[in-house]
Task: structure prediction
Amino acid sequence: MSMKHTAALAALLLVSATPFARAADKPTDPQIAHIAYTAGVIDVEAAKLAIEKSKTKDVVDFANDMVRDHEAVNVQALDLVKKLKVTPEDNATSQALSKAAQEERAKLAKLEGAAFDKAYVANEVAYHKQVNGALETLLIPSAENGELKTLLETGLKIFQGHQQHAEHVAGMLK
Amino acid sequence: MKAGVLIRPLAGALALALVASPALTATIEVTIDKLVFTPASIEAKVGDTIEWVNKDAFAHTATEKGRWEVMIPPKSKGRITLKKAEAVDYFCRFHPNMKGHLDVGP
Result:
């Protein structure tokens, strides 16, 4: 593990524990595709929980935006892996992400009303921050294929937008 | 009552006159590609139309906070006709990191 990766991973660890910390070695393109897709699915699942549970229009609207955008990114990702004849490969990072997300969803599922709204939106801020950090420091620099790199870069801009959007919604809930 | 009858054809003539002079206004195109407004800054005049052409697979908006919002669906267009001379900073409400600027002259 290079110094650069060590620093990047240390930064990620400050944001949230474990998931990306296991990606000690440079991920391959099939692994990167799997991680990016998994990250999108996780956010869609969290959003669907919010649509089901929240009664706050700003929160439900935000969740609908997340479903729409992440599903659109993942359609593009699937089209690309098909075109490149790459089979996304499950890996420790994807598994750690899924496990952390499952725990977070279980926590959120127990909350109601304003407590749910607050926890969901706070997690959206933290989660997008974490994924953006991983995209910037690990996934984009590691991607070999140019088209995959471009899609990840677009994804980064979208997720940075979501982070700001989530921060805005969090501000409104206060 | 009589006045109303008289005014109606007048109003019709006026509307026709307005429609008949489209050469004075322009439609200015702003492209959205990979979450970027291009050109990011536009100079226009009152009466001009801004048309956003969205090449992304994502929905965007052009929004001036608290004032107006144009929805721009994926692979589609959205437009607004400028009514006031002013400088406007706008952004995408879904992705607030997308920013644009309009300088509207009289």
About this structure: Chain B is about 15% helix and 45% strand. The mean pLDDT of chain B is 86. Chain B has one domain: 25-105.
